[in-house]
Design a protein that fits this description.
By secondary structure, this protein is an alpha/beta fold. Helices cover about 35% and strands about 25% of the residues. It contains 8 helices and 13 strands. It is globular and about 55 Å long.
């Protein structure tokens, strides 16, 4: 039995090399009895139940169905770029969709997995925006707006956001980066203290991991990082003491 964890690919479309890398992993890596957790921001934009997104990523949906038929379990945790997607996956009822996090048991180990955008509780501006994007008003707006308009608006918003915020923690002022790392590690320690053996997070794009000793128990925190820069996803196989990083197969020309 193996668990795979993938997030923060921020795939822009079918022509994106990281889309092909994702499809390759999903087709070749998990076997019957394995579990795959897609932990948010897999796509740079996928909001609501719009044909523009479902058609764009039709091959992804086909591979999900085929993998589930061969006995692979799938979980999808919504991120801040892919949300309100419950109806988009109605045709794949076996896929388990989560708004914030999921808790998994494998062998004698317990896993806490979240996208990670709720970790920094002092980021009030983002938390307020997140609440609005999942509000009744936003749900109604997403329902009535044409998919093509939503697509263009989302691309524009994403572009503006990247102008304001660095993509990688290493591009931040050192004090900000150190604070962010402390916040995520502290959150992970809280979950490990509750009895989890592993904590997997994403969102902040920090390629970080740490072993904690809490109450005589060892636990591991791993952040998936930013696969477009770090080129990896996470895996754990029954019997392993640690979660491992596996290389994504992406053309050298990809950026």
């Amino acid at each position: 039995m193996s668990l795979l964890f993938i997030s923060d690919l921020h795939i822009s479309g079918p022509e994106d090399p990281y889309y092909n890398a994702l499809l390759k992993v999903l087709q070749e890596r998990p076997q019957s009895g394995d579990t795959v957790v897609l932990a948010g921001d897999v796509f740079d934009l996928f909001v609501g139940n719009k044909s523009v997104f479902k058609d764009r990523y039709s091959e992804f949906f086909e591979i999900l169905r085929a993998s589930i038929q061969k006995g692979v379990e799938f979980h999808y945790i919504e991120g801040n770029h892919d949300f309100l997607i419950e109806k988009a996956f109605e045709s794949i009822p076996q896929l388990k969709l989560h708004a914030t996090h999921t808790e998994l048991n494998a062998g004698d180990k317990k896993f806490f997995v979240a996208h990670g955008d709720l970790v920094d509780r002092s980021d009030f501006g983002y938390l307020l925006l997140r609440r609005f994007f999942r509000s009744f008003v936003m749900k109604a707006f997403v329902t009535v707006i044409p998919g093509e308009w939503l697509d263009e608006f989302g691309k524009f918003s994403s572009k503006q956001s990247r102008k304001r915020k660095p993509i990688l923690p290493s591009e931040m002022p050192i004090q900000r980066m150190e604070r962010l790392r402390r916040v995520y590690r502290s959150f992970a320690a809280e979950q490990l203290a509750k009895g989890f053996d592993f904590v997997v997070l994403g969102h902040c794009h920090d390629l970080d991991e740490m072993i904690f000793n809490i109450g005589g128990r060892c636990g591991q925190y791993v952040n998936i990082g930013f696969p477009r820069n770090h080129g990896s996803f996470l895996s754990w196989t029954e019997g392993d003491e640690k979660i491992q990083r596996e290389k994504l197969s992406v053309p050298d020309s990809a950026s």
